[in-house]
Amino acid sequence: AQTVTQSQPEMSVQEAETVTLSCTYDTSENNYYLFWYKQPPSRQMILVIRQEAYKQQNATENRFSVNFQKAAKSFSLKISDSQLGDTAMYFCAFMKHDNSGTYKYIFGTGTRLKVLA
Amino acid sequence: DAGVIQSPRHEVTEMGQEVTLRCKPISGHDYLFWYRQTMMRGLELLIYFNNNVPIDDSGMPEDRFSAKMPNASFSTLKIQPSEPRDSAVYFCASSTTSRWTGRYSGYTFGSGTRLTVV
After folding, report:
1. How far is CA B59 from CA B2, B47, B67, in A?
2. N or C: which end of chain B has fewer CB within 10 A?
3. How far is A10 from chain B (nearest CA, A)?
4. What residues have CB less than 8 Å from B27, skipping those under 6 apart?
5. Is the CB of B111 less than 8 angstroms away from the CB of A105?
6. DSSP SS3 for B112
7. With an 8 Å Cβ cutoff, are A47 and B106 in contact?
8. Tens place of pLDDT for every residue, chain B, 118 residues?
9. What angle do CA B21, A44, B97 make, to 5 degrees?
10. Phi-psi region of A103 (alpha: psi -120 to 50; beta: other; left: phi over 0)
């Protein structure tokens, strides 16, 4: 069975600095997706970034980028130039991708990030 | 698109009452998911549908919970009778795979319903 581990329950970063959130996963699958979701105090779950396992290039979305290490089963999220609005809970999620039609996410337990002014 | 729409945003009910949560997925999305979020258990998948058909309901806690998707644009999650331990935030999410690119969209979540059972 797949598992997703976020080992940092809480983190803080100064505004404008860079922070990296870690995520590791365990799977025997070769084709899968990885996601980072942000949940601010408003509780809305917002997709931050996604990575297809077959792609070697790390995904980037503006100030957000990932370091995807497939062999190490690691998927960390880097937030550059942190802003106060980045304060949120961040969830890492795994989804296997095959022809069985199973599209269930496996979520990590989350990392609470606080950006300090 | 207005995104995934859930209602109500907040629901407070008395133990034993029936509660119905509603969800309108993004038009064209063929997968719909119901999740429950609590501090103790995190995000739990309750049930998901593909093309309006329930695929996996193994996460539904017990018979008090039921979910339906009568058409592609509407789903309900019902709890009858409700209990205080059902208090949580309930999320609906939808997703699809593009016919053109084959790329999976990822979940788009609704804003959730905070249910409090007193």
Report:
1. 28, 6, 12
2. N
3. 14
4. B1, B73
5. no
6. coil
7. yes
8. 679 999 999 999 999 999 999 999 999 999 999 999 999 999 999 999 999 999 999 999 889 999 999 999 999 999 999 999 999 999 999 998 877 777 788 899 999 999 999 9
9. 80
10. alpha
